[in-house]
Structures are given as C-alpha cells and as structure tokens.
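User: Show me a protein chain along with its predicted structure.
Assistant: Here is one chain, sequence first, then structure tokens.
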Amino acid sequence: MSRIFKYFLAVLAIVITIIGVKSGYNTGKQVTYPVAYGDWIIEYSAKNELDPFLVMAVIKQESNFVPEAHSGVAGGLMQLTEETAEWNAKELGISNYDFMDPETNINLGCHYLKYLIDHYENTDTALAAYNGGMGNIDSWLADSNYSSDRVTLDYIPFSETRNYVIRVNNYWEHYTELYGE
C-alpha cells in the first residue's frame, strides 16, 4: 500500500470520527455494542414478552451479531444447538426451517429464552441454563451448596457459566443505557 494511500485512509478515518462526534454518534460505545437485525429482535422479543435489550445482550455474548458464528455444536446469532432449535421449532409449529438463518435463529432463541425464564422464574438462573444447560442448573438448584432457595443460584460452580451471566447482565445494562428511552 502506498504511503499516500495510507495517509488518505488516516485522514478519512479522522474526518469520519469528527463527523460522527459532532452529529452525536458515540462511535466507541456503539461499535462495542452493535445492533443488527433490530426489527427481528423487537418482533420476537415482543412476541415472547422479553426485553429486547436482554436479547441484544445474549446475541452480543453468543455471537457478537455474526450470524454464521459457531461454537462447538451450537450456531447462529443466539448459538442454538440443532437439538434446541428442533425442540423450539416443534413448539412453535415450524416444520421447514434453517436454524442458522438470522430471523429463524432469533425467533427460536427468543422462544427458548422465554421458556427458560418462565421455567426458572429468575432471569439469572435462566441465563445460566441458556449457557450451562438445564440439567446442570437443576442439579445446582437442588444442592444447598449452590442454592439456598432452589430458585436462585447463590453460586455457579462453572466459571464459564458464572462469567456468562455476569457478561450478559453487563451487556444488558449497556444496551439499555445506549439505546433505551
């Protein structure tokens, strides 16, 4: 790349940043907390009586809004396994679907998140189940070392799941501050 072209790109980046700042666009935070697929997030959040900022936080943590993201056996914006997608599709009466399709993934993921929240009656416990699996959560809730009331997890023994709940809650707070009314 030529020196002049590099200089041009640097100047262009500065101009875009200045225009963004002057127009009130918070480049740093909105790049850190992106939003894509907003119409579907709002639609399927409303359909499932979920806070759309919570759904954004889950998507941010799961895939950072990259629809083709994969982690192990899970995939898509909300990182669903084929088994979880199949169960949710059946519950919703959907027979022909591609769970990696962004709209379908958000639809199925919101349905699953709502199911977990209704089942556990506690958002943090539901988030732990979204990450750590219902089997683990059920055993932790039954163990007085982890739960004093069988509803709330006082301690999450898997550091990945414990950190997941913390990160999603932090993202939820930031999305609400950035994009809420």
